[in-house]
Every structure is written in C-alpha cells, then in structure tokens.
Amino acid sequence: MTWTTFKQNLPTMYGIAGTVLLATLLVGTDTGRETLGWIYLQSTQAIDHSIHFPFPLARLDPTCPQCM
Which tens digit of pLDDT belongs to each residue from 11-62? Predict the structure, then answer.
C-alpha cells in the first residue's frame, strides 16, 4: 500500500474504528444497553400513537386511475 492510498483510506478506517467502538460501548455497558432499550421503547410508543389511515395510501395516488 502506498502512502497516498493510505492517506486516502484513513478517514474510512477512522469511521470503521469509531463505529466498532460505539457499538462496543452500547452493547458492552449497562448505560448503553439501557439507552438501546429506551430508544426501542420510544420508537414503539411513537408507532402506537401515529395516525393510521383506514384505507391503503395507494388510493391517494392521483396517477392511479383505478384507485380514484
């Protein structure tokens, strides 16, 4: 590997290392696991409280003649 190629790939290597570090911290610590649990509960609560249409959204497509 030449020095130029190494310098070009350095940001990618830092990104991969940072991702591995973050994943290790989230899964490997109590605080990280609690945070992941909180995110999961917040997302399910948001889905439960979202607006659900009683018909398929394809009926709102103005380019679909059989849907109108």
Answer: 999 999 999 999 999 999 999 999 999 999 999 888 888 777 776 766 677 7
Q: Can you tell me which residue has the tokens 């911290």?
A: 25
Nearest to 56 by CA among 46, 47, 66, 45: 66
Q: What is the three-class DSSP state of 20?
A: helix
Q: Residue 23: what pLDDT?
A: 94
> Closest Cα to residue 20, out of 9, 30, 31, 12?
12
Contact 67, 58 (CB under 8 A): yes
Q: What is the token pair recorded at 54?
A: 């009683």
